[in-house]
Amino acid sequence: MRYHMDSAFYASMLYDFYGALLSDAQKDVMSLYHENNLSLSEIAEELGQTRQAVHYTLKKAEASLEEYEEKLRLVATYENNQELAQKAADIVAKSEIEEGQAYELLTIIKKLAE
Known about the structure:
Blueprint: H1 7-18, H2 24-35, H3 40-47, H4 51-72, H5 74-94, H6 99-113
């Protein structure tokens, strides 16, 4: 499930949350592909591998990240918390709370959403 994010951003989020669980080779390929925006051919050249090997490593890493998300749901929880924080901030902004209290509430909401 990709939630409300485009696939590149979703893959990046998965990598941010679960990247430490990947092998070093998978981390290298994921980083070069998703963060440095290199093509599979460019990654293969940089790592001294075939394009097919890089493709296999990338797909295996992405599948592992999806599996972690299916089980742990950290990205889904994060996205849900962001939506709830925005709703709460909108309510505070529309309320007639004293300005200092509104600022304090918004600060708390922002910290909870991090």
